[in-house]
Automatic annotation (TrEMBL):
Keywords: Metal-binding, Zinc, Zinc-finger
Pfam family, one: zf-MYND
Entry's Gene Ontology molecular function annotations: zinc ion binding
Keyword tRNA processing included in the entry's annotation: no
Annotated ranges, domain MYND-type: 6-47
This protein's name: MYND-type domain-containing protein
Entry keyword Zinc: yes
């Protein structure tokens, strides 16, 4: 994670409190911890090395980046075997010797790359836009290269997203908090999202709380603050804090409706996340009531193939089949809905994309629950036992995945 704690006692400092080493900027809660770290913690041996690397924060970013790239390359090793980077055309990176990754929706022989090459390409494109004053729209589009594949136009996911998040942070950590593009704050957001995608949920919370606090302190536009708050809500949910998650989504949804209206894509995404939080606390009737209108709006405004539309329908189906009071017709509606979303997701994103596997897992669970209910109504004891066994197996497999 980013350095928001005292290097000695781990007291939380946020981004502004405490003291810093005058040479390398290692952070402390006070003079006592700073002296102890120099005398007993080995900082006297490490300080010059940290300074040479650009300071403690830069050194930490470089180290975490190297670790994350190694994890991503190992995870992708089987998929990338025998392939070459579409940017540098080499199998091993000429300088870092890192392996290839692919963590998007590219299929076949497309989309293989080194994290270093993806990072360098994104860095060059953004620098060109800044130097030539190409405008906010171009800057935003080019910034997407830090989290979205330029070939398939889909976001990176998993450990690849995590490695690219560290690449982004190490590139812009030295920038001031406020500059022409808020690059440091944007990089912090990219890192937080990457940590979450890579399964480092506690670290993601720490980074995203720091970002949210910073944006509020800097007085940036409210839309940017709401995006940061949404990322924080996701991190709360993944870190086992459902009440904090739900309260945050409720606040964001109310504010986005007020600012942007019901047809805005971000408002629709927030409706989905708010409903997901309700389902997590087993408030299924509230979730179903919330989702019905956004689903209709999303189909009309975004289209049937859009990921937001598909996700709204999946969460609605989940609220149907996970409700203890669900009727047989509720379960059948859930299965039909998930069959549709799974078919579309396979076609749009590919079979291995997390969105597709999520729809497939939800469909399997809904089908299993429906078989249990139908067997119960038919009075077939053996069929009911088998259906229950299948349902338990499906839900256990999903929980353990």
């Amino acid at each position: 994670m980013i350095l928001t704690q005292c290097a000695v006692c781990a007291t939380e400092l946020g981004l502004t409190l405490g003291k810093k080493c005058g040479r390398c900027s290692t952070r402390y809660c006070g003079a006592e911890c700073q002296v102890q770290h120099w005398k007993e913690g080995g900082h006297d041996q490490l300080c010059k090395k940290l300074k040479k690397a650009g300071g403690a924060e830069q050194y930490n970013a470089n180290t975490k980046y190297t670790e994350a790239v190694a994890v991503a390359a190992e995870k992708c090793a089987e998929d990338t075997k025998g392939q070459t980077c579409y940017i540098c055309t080499q199998a091993l990176h000429w300088k870092t010797k890192e392996g290839l990754v692919r963590g998007c929706s590219c299929r076949g022989t497309a989309g293989f790359a080194h994290v270093s090459c993806l990072a360098e390409q994104a860095k060059i494109l953004l620098a060109e836009a800044e130097e030539n004053n190409l405008g906010e729209k171009v800057l935003y589009e080019r910034w997407r290269r830090w989290h979205r594949c330029s070939l398939c136009k889909q976001d990176y996911h998993g450990v690849v997203r995590c490695a690219i998040g560290w690449a982004c942070w190490k590139t812009y950590v030295g920038r001031p908090e406020v500059d022409s593009f808020m690059a440091r704050m944007s990089a912090m957001r990219c890192l937080g999202m990457g940590l979450s995608a890579g399964g480092h949920h506690a670290d993601a919370v720490s980074v995203q709380e720091a970002e949210f606090s910073s944006l509020q302190r800097l007085g940036v536009p409210e839309d940017d603050i709401l995006v940061s708050q949404g990322n924080l809500a996701i991190a709360y949910e993944r870190n086992g804090r459902p009440e904090d998650c739900l309260r945050t989504w409720q606040d964001i949804y109310s504010r986005r409706l007020e600012l942007f209206g019901e047809e805005n894509e971000l408002t629709l995404q927030t409706a989905n996340n708010y409903a997901w939080g309700l389902c997590g606390l087993e408030r299924f009737e509230e979730a179903k009531a919330l989702l019905r209108k956004p689903m209709r709006v999303a189909r009309r405004v975004l289209g049937e193939n859009h990921e937001v539309t598909l996700t709204l329908k999946k969460v609605y189906a989940g609220s149907l089949c996970n409700d203890p009071d669900a009727t047989l017709e509720d379960l059948r509606e859930a299965v039909t809905t998930l069959e549709d979303t799974t078919r579309i997701s396979r076609r749009v994103f590919g079979a291995s994309h997390p969105s597709t596997t999520g729809h497939e897992e939800s469909l399997q669970e809904a089908q299993a629950l429906l078989r249990v209910r139908e067997a119960k109504l038919e009075g077939d004891v053996n069929a009911r036992v088998n259906a229950l066994r299948d349902a338990v197996a499906v839900m256990k497999a999903r929980r353990d995945a």
